[in-house]
Amino acid sequence: MPQFAIFRVLPIKKMIDATNATRHGGRCDRGTHYDAERTSLNRHWFRGTEVAAPVEWPQAIMATIEALGARTRAGAPIAAELLLTASPPFFIEPTTGEWNGEKLERWVEANFGALEKRFPGQVAAARLDLDEASPHLAVCLVPIYRKSTKHRKDVPTVSYRRVFGGETIAEASLTMIGWQDWYAEAMAPLGLSRGVPKLITHREHLTHQQYARRMHEKETELTQAIEDNRRRDQKLREIRERLHAEVRAYQCDLQDFKTNKAAFIKETAARRADLRVQMQWIGEAIAELGAIATSQERRRLTTMKHAALQEMATLSGAAEMASPDNAPDKISAPSSPAAS
């Protein structure tokens, strides 16, 4: 499996950026990408000399510019930050699964040798991070190009754009491809090779700040999704409890109906028997009176008969509705919305 040499570079535009880089190197900022228990293993260099404590990058930049006798331009970047590393398996010893210290040391020496050869005296500070997932070098470099003026030739001038950038985005991309080719060639003796260019892979490389911001956004989205689900579950529980309460109330009403149904049917049957007796009496009265009854008496008897018939029909309908065939014995609880 091929193992790649990795080269990235960013401009240090102002001294505040260099100060922030110093804070990051000293682990003064909050971060989850490093193991604080291993931070003491990190190594530091000041202008090519290894030192015990983290280096203040602003002082290192100013010391390097002064040593080179270089000019700076107002508003232009004052330095560059290089990230140099390799594929994670490169550093690991297959038999133990731990970092191979000897190979790591050869890699560090090869990097400083290549940097000094290509950028003599321009490395202001460097840091080897050993408290993260993979070892890598963070290098503070003062990029110099030789500028000719009317009065002097080959004036050393700090210029990130001339060394690592370009006049256009396309030109800057081609320049970066060239530097990555150079770095891969310098690391080739160690068995490292050039990766596929970003122009082909379209991969996005993130800084620690960009990565932390993206992770924070994802964490916020996840927290919001969890809260939305919690509210939805609470709403479903409320709906389920209300439906169960309504079912219990209906079951109580049904039980009351069953309890009173027998008495209602009995009362209806007695009233219907009374009406049948009344209708029989009316029929007999009409037959006995015959022709001697006045028209007013006949109308009165007929009205009583119709009223009895109408009440009989009403009671018959009520009795039918109250019959066991038309009254449900039980009701099932509706299915929970959560199951739908």
What is the number of helical segments per DSSP (H or I, 4+ residues)?
9
Q: What is the overall pLDDT average?
A: 82
The whole-angstrom Rg is: 48 Å
Secondary-structure element string: EHEEHEHHEEEEHHEHHH
Instruction: Give a quick account of the main beta sheet: strands, pairing sense, barrel closure.
Output: 7 strands, mixed
Strand content: 5-15%
Provide the helix percentage. Answer: 40-55%
Strand arrangement across the biggest beta sheet: 3-2-5-6-4-1-9
CATH topological fold name of the largest domain: BirA Bifunctional Protein, domain 2
How many individual domains? Answer: 2
How far is the first residue's CA from the last residue's CA? Answer: 50 Å
Structure summary, number of beta strands: 9
Spatial shape: rod-shaped
Low-confidence stretches: 327-334, 336-340
